[in-house]
């Protein structure tokens, strides 16, 4: 594998000079080629996601396939505008010059993807990389290996490996890839491995986009529509069995509203994810593997030992890797459930007496990937927005801010570096090159030596 990786990397290093010459038409036709290859493989994609994560057909359609198609269509529509050099304003010293920003491809890029939305999270950066005119090496997650296999098949049948290549495998393959001096690395995964990737990239001064995780809070104030908030949080928490990077990780709620919220959350969950009193496995996904299943179980046990109470759920079905939606109450900041990203269908509820306490709590933690605000009070919304930081924020909803390609998607500090989607993805895979076309009337010579009597010009 090591030799194969090196030889593909060499091929791409040579080919990148041809690719950088490609115009809008050529890149558009590549994006169309990708879309049509994906459309032809839809059945295999549905089957792979069902196998890896027990994703229902509808969920795969909405969160993986159509999401990807929308990203391709958006890139095709906007590509000419994105690629066009942008004129910028002049200053006195370059008043006669033409000042422009050119968007040049970074060159040979590496994309490493996680297992939770294993298709979409590989395709979305790939679309941006193609739009920006790059050669690309893909490394899907070994934990969602059915999807990894389908991606590899589609890519190898559609593109020459000197342009786009895919290497399946785990840490060993990633580690080999990370030794190479890529022109850019786009990594989606955990914060811990993000640090490994950034350290490896630093050795070659390779630029990085890091799409990481963390604990995304949902703050509910006393003006919120509680029923709607509970329904939205239940969906956001439980879609893909909680294995979503921007899932609301925990709830911070006014202490007077906790009991009512819990009831609404249960009702909404039953309506969406249950058949009578049983989990409906046609719509509720499984935990990716035994290791993650055990981690979530242990987390509940440790949290309960530390004083948290299982308000609802907690039952498990090991054979099917299914963990019932679980609500934990009496949770303190020090409880084990609050020490790591949950990434499963467990919702801890923390209460506050004043909104300031909720804000201070969020600010005492790492900056989250997403922060959700449920409120109908403009002053409270502004207060939370002004006094906290997060990669993105959705007010009175969850997850859906990811669906607008005109908004940047990414984290801040420990939840990520850089952003993706639409023009933001295009820019992450491009070098913004400053170009000044000097005019014959240029006045630079005014500052050449000798300086004798020139101070008076300043
Ligand atoms: P992970 O960090 O364990 O793995 C991600 C990728 O890195 C995989 O392809 C894996 O093979 C590779 N990898 C693992 N260990 C490595 C190492 N030591 N060196 C080099 N490469 C290594 O993450 P995961 O478990 O696949 O995904 C879950 C995490 O990803 C969660 O934290 C979640 O929040 C985050 N995530 C973030 C986003 C986002 O858009 N910000 C999206 C999805 C998931």
Automatic annotation (TrEMBL):
Family annotation (Pfam families): Aldedh
Aldehyde dehydrogenase domain location: 13-434
Active site: 211
Keywords tagged on the record: NAD, Oxidoreductase
Similarity-based family: Belongs to the aldehyde dehydrogenase family.
PANTHER family for this protein: ALDEHYDE DEHYDROGENASE (PTHR43570), ALDEHYDE DEHYDROGENASE ALDX-RELATED (PTHR43570:SF20)
Identification of the protein by name: Aldehyde dehydrogenase
């Amino acid at each position: 594998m090591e030799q194969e990786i090196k030889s593909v990397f060499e091929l791409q290093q040579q080919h990148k000079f041809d690719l950088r010459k490609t115009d809008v038409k050529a890149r558009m036709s590549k994006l169309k080629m990708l879309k049509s290859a994906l459309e032809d493989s839809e059945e295999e994609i549905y089957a792979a996601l069902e196998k890896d994560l027990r994703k229902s057909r509808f969920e795969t359609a909405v969160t993986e396939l159509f999401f990807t198609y929308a990203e391709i269509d958006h890139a095709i529509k906007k590509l000419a505008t994105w690629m066009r050099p942008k004129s910028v304003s002049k200053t006195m010293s370059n008043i006669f010059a033409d000042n422009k920003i050119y968007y040049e491809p970074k060159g040979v890029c590496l994309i490493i993807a996680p297992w939770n939305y294993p298709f979409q999270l590989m395709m979305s950066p790939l679309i941006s990389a193609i739009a920006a005119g790059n050669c690309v090496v893909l490394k899907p997650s070994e934990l969602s290996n059915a999807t990894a296999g389908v991606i590899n098949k589609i890519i190898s049948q559609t593109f020459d490996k000197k342009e786009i290549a895919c290497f399946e495998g785990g840490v060993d393959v990633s580690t080999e890839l990370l030794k190479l001096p890529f022109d850019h690395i786009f990594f989606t995964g955990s914060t811990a491995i993000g640090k490994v990737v950034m350290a490896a990239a630093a050795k070659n001064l390779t630029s990085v986009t890091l799409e990481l995780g963390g604990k995304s809070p949902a703050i509910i104030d006393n003006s919120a529509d509680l029923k709607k908030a509970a329904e939205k949080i239940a969906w956001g928490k439980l879609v893909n069995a909680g294995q979503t990077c921007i899932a609301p990780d925990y709830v911070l709620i006014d202490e007077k509203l906790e009991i009512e919220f819990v009831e609404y959350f249960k009702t909404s969950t039953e309506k969406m994810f249950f058949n009578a009193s049983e989990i409906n496995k046609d719509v509720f996904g499984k935990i990716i593997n035994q290791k993650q299943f055990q981690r979530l179980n242990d987390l509940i046990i440790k949290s309960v030992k530390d004083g948290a109470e299982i308000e609802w759920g907690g039952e498990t079905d090991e054979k099917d890797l299914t963990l019932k939606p679980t609500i934990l109450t009496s949770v303190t900041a020090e409880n084990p459930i609050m020490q790591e990203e949950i990434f499963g269908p467990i919702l801890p509820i923390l209460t506050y007496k004043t909104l300031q306490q909720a804000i201070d709590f969020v600010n005492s933690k790492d900056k989250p990937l997403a922060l959700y605000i449920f409120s109908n009070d403009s002053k409270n919304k502004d207060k939370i927005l002004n006094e906290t930081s997060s990669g993105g924020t959705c007010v009175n909803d969850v997850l859906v801010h990811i669906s607008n390609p005109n908004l940047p998607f990414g984290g801040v500090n420990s939840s990520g570096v850089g952003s993706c989607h639409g023009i933001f993805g295009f820019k992450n895979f491009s070098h913004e090159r400053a170009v000044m076309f000097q005019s014959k009337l240029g006045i630079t010579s005014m500052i050449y030596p000798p300086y004798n009597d020139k101070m008076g010009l300043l």
